[in-house]
Amino acid sequence: MSGSGNDFVVLDGRVTDPGRWPAAQIRAVCDRRTGVGADGLVILTPATADSVRMVYWNADGSHGALCGNAALCSGRLAVMLELVAPGEFCLLTDAGVVRVRAPDTGDQVEINLPDVAIPSQQTSITPGPGEQWVSFGTVGVPHLVIRVDDLEAIDVTGRGRWLRSHESLGADGANVNFVAAGRDLWLIRTYERGVEGETLACGTGTVAAALAIASRAEAQLPVRFRSRGGPELTVQAELDGSRASDVWLGGQGRLVFRGVWEDI
Question: pTM (2 decimals)?
């Protein structure tokens, strides 16, 4: 599945379970030369009549508490596989309960994320050339948001790799989201930990970026973004002091193909 180019292998938990997927197997499936190729792997398992358990791993086999675009894709597929009825239901993630709005047709999905702290200024990292400010916050997983003048002038891979493991971010590091103002919407590029390279979109990173720029009065919510993958993502939230509530992310959850993994 693809969420604005952020792609995932998604498995039906009725025929498999997380215990059968060690890190080495996840890496093999996500390998773009010898496997299926993906930024991560998801297993969806029915929980109740109106909820589905979502377990997520990055392409390197490391577990992730949440991935926004994977949640958008999971919401869409949960309806397609009839794990839940179309409309509003819940994804049970390791970052908390995520409400979903997914119709029975089309690729557009909305997810409601748990309340979060608005990303705050990161004083331990000095902005580099072409960078205006740096903020850090956690939206399911940690994100470093860098406001830049020109998104095309940034070395996303080189600068992102260095920032991703900055000592101030702790042992696990963070995703790095570079954002710039476009003509009629915001632009974003992401260096993603666990993939260890640029991905075409990052849902929770887009939320972190929206909250950061809105808290600085550089944009008004809802905020529209275009990622490297093309399709737009929209973020809506209510800001109150240092907290954001009623956080909604809207975007794509598109089924690209179905297949069978030959475990040989």
Answer: 0.90
